[in-house]
Amino acid sequence: MPFETHIVIFCNEPKEVPPGIELVVGLPIQNPRSLSFAHKRIFADRANDYDLFIFSEDDILITETNIRAFLQSCAIMHENEIPGFLLKEIGPDGNLNYPQAHGQFHWDPSSVRRRGDETFAFFTNEHAASYILTRIHLQRAIASGGFLLPPYEDRYDMLCTAATDPYTRCGFKKLICVSRLDEFSLHHLPNKYIGKFGVSGQVLQRQVDALIRIAQNGEVPASLFPSETKLMGTPYSKNYYEPVKEEIASLISSSTRSVLSVGCGWGATEAWIAKRGLRVVAVPMDPVISSEVEGAGVELVNGDLEKVVEQLAGQRFDCLLMLNMLHLIEDPAALLRSFSGLLSNHCQVIVTVPNFSSISVRWKRMRRDPRLQPLGRYEASGVHITSHRVLRGWFRDASLEVGEFIDLVPKRAEKVQRMTLNMISSLLASEIIVVGKKAPTMYPAFETSSRTTAI
């Protein structure tokens, strides 16, 4: 690089380093993951000595191109905004993988904004194992009181927290320049997440194209509903990238001709159902994540819940899907009721939720796992505790009837399930499927059953 650069390596024990490189030895606290916080004191002590301050884990490639793109964007952004980066990986075939895009992490469509001739947006996974701050950024971060904190965990684990708290604690918003995405992508050199999680370059580009269209149209779309819990490090948020759920598709009645899916992510299950010849209408979480299912035979209806119901008024569907989302809604029964008028007389309602009555969850709560302490208080946790009893109550309050519970037991628990003759499957299951229909005010009642399946 043409820049005058001072490199500091932080390590928990002495090691040989090349001439001209500074080595700082020692952990801030006993936890070895706290090493990622060690750079902060150095940055603070030398806040007036450099133009740029770069923190990075030891396997991230940051190039001159990345640095110059950062500086150019700083010149057009607001003072509370910082240009950020996405991580990319490169497979043996040259194809890209973006590992930050997994689980609940997604683009916030309401964050899209124009700065100069460029388009920026916020990606909800702020961890890129690195960050760049100007001298002014760093001084403001220190003055905020959120930078020089002792090692801690919050939304992210300790390693990730050290690389994200300039955004999460110091009053800045991390925005990624999607109109120059390649210059704002950093190579994660081990390429170790390829085939494990993340999305391909083609998938991410379709999302970026949707973001740019939003900027051009002047729209301000929002997500369908809050999709993340407030429980740190738990798997109960909406998964935007769910794989095909064939066990769900197999439950759809052979007489079904039309399916309405509310809370659709990238639509793998919906596209799979559409390929079977059914009409599938999806209400996606937002118009960015749904870009993946466009052109796959799925009709999309975007908007908030009230507008969606208005747009669908007068239509009738034989099956209503709500996958991995009902437990996140403040009033689940009200949501079910709002779509009941769109259901045909002999409809199916298929819902999936996490099983908070499992032995695993109960054991963690008994041991006072801090991540689960807010459970039981929706305002504090952003999630409702779900069980067979709770689901039956939601269905009843929505004038729906439960016909069958299916407990999805993880493979690791199958042996115990067999040893107990399926007697405690509801305690082993990590997920619950409930199948119901309209309440029997006009139609014959049917008995509730329960079965299990492996996942």
Per-chain topology:
Blueprint: E1 8-11, E2 22-25, H1 39-45, E3 52-56, E4 60-61, H2 64-74, E5 81-83, E6 86-90, E7 96-98, E8 107-115, E9 118-123, E10 130-134, H3 135-144, H4 158-162, H5 165-168, E11 173-177, E12 185-188, E13 199-200, H6 201-217, H7 246-249, E14 258-264, H8 268-274, E15 279-284, E16 298-300, H9 305-312, E17 317-323, H10 332-340, E18 343-354, H11 359-366, H12 378-381, H13 388-397, E19 400-409, H14 414-419, H15 425-428, E20 431-438, E21 449-454
Parallel strand pairs: 1-2, 5-11, 6-12, 14-15, 14-17, 15-16, 17-18, 19-21
Antiparallel strand pairs: 3-10, 4-12, 6-7, 7-13, 8-9, 9-11, 18-20, 19-20
Helix pairs in contact: 10-13
Keywords:
455 residues, alpha/beta, Rossmann fold, eight-stranded mixed β-sheet, five-stranded mixed β-sheet, 25% strand
